[in-house]
Amino acid sequence: MAEPAKSRSEAAPAPPTWPDEIYRVLKDAGIRQVAMVPDAGHSRLIRAFEADPETRVVTLTTEEEGVAMLAGAWLGGERGVLLLQSSGVGNCINMLSLPVICHMPLLMIVTMRGDWGEFNPWQIPMGQGTRPSLEAMGVIVNKVDEPHLVASAVQGAANLAFNTWKPVAVLIGQRVLGAKNFKELAGK
Amino acid sequence: MNNPNALLHRRDVVNELLRDRADLLVIAGLGAPNWDVSAAGDHPNNFPLWGAMGGASMIGLGLALAQPKRKVLVITGDGEMLMNVGSLATIAVEAPKNLAIAVLDNERFGETGMQKTPTASGVDLSAIATACGIRTSRIVRTMAEVTELRELAHAGRGTVFAQIKVDPEALVFVMPPADGVILTTRFRQSVLGDEALFN
Lengths: 188, 199
Fold this sequence. Notes:
The structure holds two protein chains of two kinds.
Chain A: H1 2-10, H2 18-28, E1 31-36, H3 43-50, E2 56-59, H4 63-75, E3 79-85, H5 86-89, H6 97-102, E4 106-111, H7 124-136, E5 140-144, H8 150-164, E6 167-172, H9 174-177, H10 182-185
Parallel strand pairs in A: 1-2, 1-3, 3-4, 4-6, 5-6
Helix pairs in contact in A: 2-3, 2-8
Chain B: H1 10-17, E1 25-28, H2 32-39, E2 46-48, H3 56-66, E3 72-77, H4 78-83, H5 87-94, E4 99-105, E5 108-109, E6 115-116, H6 125-132, E7 136-140, H7 143-155, E8 160-165, H8 180-192
Helix pairs in contact in B: 1-2, 1-7
């Protein structure tokens, strides 16, 4: 009896529209450099930027490289965005001194782990530490937990960052992204 | 007679790299490289770091990508480069033609008591850069090679990396402005024009 229901749920659900919406918002904000350590939650947005000849997508070995790179972009008159997972926020902490003390804009879009519905205990410390660490460094944080609010959160963050020369982070919660279930992935 | 094995003096090296600098854009890593670049002359096209250890090369990358017609020279230290050596992989992949990275390698953490860095034990940064894919990568030991490096940095024909062996001498500090807003604003005004003040 459960089989038909399962088949229906496996029929590809419509992809979320918020990645396409924030691609458009970021284009309108004049983003030219995209620095990132990939996260599954950002994959659709990354593909959109990779297909865009106007943007340079740079894959980093650690997220703090992106903080420095986007400071250089600003010095040269270009705007960028840093795409990262919440665990990568921890890698950025000291480098955030740079945009904070130099009054440079920095736009970070952080996909959350260790948040709503998390099942991997190792994700909890940094996931729960993401907002307080960013705020301790002087980054303005806005968390969004509803898909229809993601685009406006990113638009507001971009305006705030580039008009007031502040580091700003949008945290996209697991309610939006969907929590992974490794037990399902392991076929149990 | 000159000792052919004598180590280079870091300020001679920097003075040569910045000779007739034209519109060269310079990022200086924190500590002695900052003081060396400042000793060669304060300049609005310098962005000298007072912190952000490990970030100098990546600031250079973002700047080089944003200003493809300008030449960007990063002058930093071995400790600073080692802190984020992964950025050499990132930079090698992007391969900006207009970026040169000059590491003043005194094999020491100079600001903290001259403790040895891994390069003192033979870690070869230029080989790391080569292995990452930066084809013009070398160890520099003579002033003639420094002059060659200067030409490469000014020519902008490909990403350049150099590990310059220098004397672990402690020199008088020559400091640029410390206010990051001043450093950022004057750099942007110089590179982008007065328009940058209204953004």
